[in-house]
Amino acid sequence: MEKVQYFDLEKIGDSSLGFITVAENLKNIPFEVKRVYWTYYTPQDVIRGGHAHKNLEQLIFAVSGIIEFNTENKDGHKETFILNNPSKGIYIPKLVWRDIKFSHNAVLLCLASLPYTEDDYIRDYQDFQKLIE
């Protein structure tokens, strides 16, 4: 997968009992998951993200609330994605700049293809621009 795109996982259940969504390594996830993290209690006036990754791939879900991703890929294409359904996320490949806005009580869940390493981050937008030229 080469571009940022919505990614659906099956929602099992019904409104009378509730729902479950399952993610399985290399089965319905397009990479081997090496790290899982979640962010929460992010103030609504804070914009998070502000970075890209050199090699990391991610699947990101809003398990609660609404999360807005403003992305820019390596071709300069800008796109906005709204996450507001726990079974519908976005796939983010490497070399995609992102800025993220959270609603009150939003919880972001991320499945990542690599363990954390600071060297994989591009934290300066000008450096990102130079890298993709």
UniProtKB/TrEMBL annotation:
Residues 3-131 form the Sugar 3,4-ketoisomerase QdtA cupin domain. GO terms for molecular function: isomerase activity. InterPro entries: QdtA_cupin_dom, RmlC-like_jellyroll, RmlC_Cupin_sf. Signal peptide: none annotated. Keywords: Isomerase. Pfam families: FdtA. This is FdtA/QdtA family cupin domain-containing protein. It comes from Chryseobacterium arthrosphaerae.
